[in-house]
Amino acid sequence: MSTFQPNEPVAHVDVHVEHLPGATLVRVAGELDHLTAPAFEAVALPAARAYPQRLVIDLTEVSFLASAGIAVVLAAGAEAPGKVHVVVGSGFMRRPLEIAGAGEVVRLCTTREEALAEA
């Protein structure tokens, strides 16, 4: 039998910030849904405001991306127009962001190196 309790969150996300020369890197791992997006937002939006030279959001370790996570990416892009680069790889993470029009607000990159090297 399951011991699931209705008030227990079932999703998990880890968000780490690293300050690099000329960029701030936000690495996200886990699931980005309505339960975990606030933790991502609490890091990404202040980073976009405080370090506007370049914000790199690495989503390559995200296993699930819901609309709430996409909304945070778009909000970060709105906070620092032209300065937010999102690492999505070439797989399943790229498509929902493309459909949502994220490429109009942020730069979608395949690798972290590409995002950090972009001028």
TrEMBL record:
What single Pfam family name could you report for this chain, choosing any that match?
STAS
Superkingdom of the source?
Bacteria
**Residue ranges occupied by any STAS domain in the UniProt entry:** 13-119
Which ranges form a coiled coil? none
What is the name attached to this protein's record?
Anti-anti-sigma factor
Recorded source organism is Amycolatopsis methanolica 239
